[in-house]
Amino acid sequence: MPDFKAMYKTVMDDHFPDDLTISWGDQRLVYRKRTWVINDDGENIQKGLRYGENPGQEAAVYELVSGNLSLGDCSFIEPGKGLVSCLSEEGLLQFGKHPGKTNLTDVDSALNVMRYLDARPAVMIMKHNNPSGASYGASAAEAYDRANAADRLAAFGGAAVFTVRVDAEAAKLMANNYLEVVAAPDYDGAALEIFAKKKNLRVIRIDRIDRIRDYAPLRFVDFKSLMDGGLIVQQSQLNRITSPAALLPAEAVSRDGVRHAVTRQPDEREVADLLFGWQVEQGVTSNSVLFVKNETTVAIGAGEQDRVGVAEIAIFKAYKKKADDIAFRHHGKLFFEVEIEEADGRLPAGTAAAIRAEADAEKGGLVGSAAVSDAFFPKRDGIDAIAKHGVGSIIQPGGSLADAEIIDAVNQHGMAMVFTGQRAFKH
Predict the structure, then answer these.
(1) How far, in whole angstroms, is CA 331 from its chain's centroid?
(2) Is the dihedral of CA 240, 245, 247, 253 positive or negative?
(3) What is the pLDDT of residue 25?
(4) CA 202, CA 143: separation in Å to the nearest integer?
(5) H or E element: which one contains 9?
(6) CA distance to 3, 114, 146, 280, 368, per residue, from 136 (Å)
(7) Dihedral over Cα of 188, 189, 191, 196: its sign
(8) pTM beyond cutoff 0.85
(9) How many CB atoms lie within 10 A of CB 242?
(10) Regarding beta strands 202-205 and 179-184, do their DSSP bridges make them parallel or antiparallel, or are they unpaired?
(11) Which contiguous run of DSSP H or E holds residue 168?
């Protein structure tokens, strides 16, 4: 019988060149492959990425070391601004199992969102290039605790990325979970001592995270390789919604020429949630709808084909994750574990039903939350789906032929809504 576990222990050779040069007309960009000295079965060897998206796929990460690309009126990121791509042994404070592709792309996806956040402590817990939970907090520990509680199940095996220094309090919380990666601008010595007991954990220091907001206006070149060997190349997205002043009033003119406008504007708390949710949305695979309350994600629906369907999935997740959180707070277990222990007599009969009833009574934590959609709602059915669960406000691009109908639905439900005038697709 094959040893399936062995494939995850693979450290692959890669046959990618040490240097990569791309010529854009008369402009020349030079990249250097990043490798590290790692210990493999007691032997120190020079290696790059562990493997790609899956064992058996060779992969490499390259840092831009020379050249600066300018096309039209856009200048792309220059050399010397490396984050994930310039990690050295000094930044890999604890190798654990040295990084593979998805470990680094998870961190990169978090940083792509964090460049739009303010200076408060914030955490994103990433899983397969999507956030499972994200939150601001008064400290690194509080932000992590809130982000983790948003989806305790999905956080298993994830990457926790911080905007601020990680201290012992935050490290103790993380030590209770299985994480693949922790990334931050710095760590207390006591935090590193706690992490040292987690032998497979990768602990990464990225020096420029504390200046991540400097990257907000900077574009990079986004490559998509096609299965026929071709490429699609585009400018990266820039999020223009970085302050309340950038929000647009939700109004539209119907086909019969009548102007429709949302009658209730979001209050200060709702605006904070809408803005935070829109920043997180930049890192969520489309089609997506997510919910935010008190600047913490409640539930994230990602990667669906239809908008009302992804809204329904996010609602379902909100109720499920709320039940998980209640079960954990009362019993130190997730909801499915409570059901198992109740079935075999280790917990009293009715325990799971009581948890489910509490989650239902709180409507999955959705009451007063903000809904975020990466593209416009094509019909009012999505609005009706979220309104009955107590969602109070919405942020979306606008621009649908049905905007007037959608505005009327928002008004009927007593909700607030703003437009961004910008879509946030991510594929």
Answers:
(1) 28
(2) negative
(3) 92
(4) 20
(5) none
(6) 42, 11, 8, 11, 18
(7) positive
(8) yes
(9) 18
(10) parallel
(11) helix 168-175
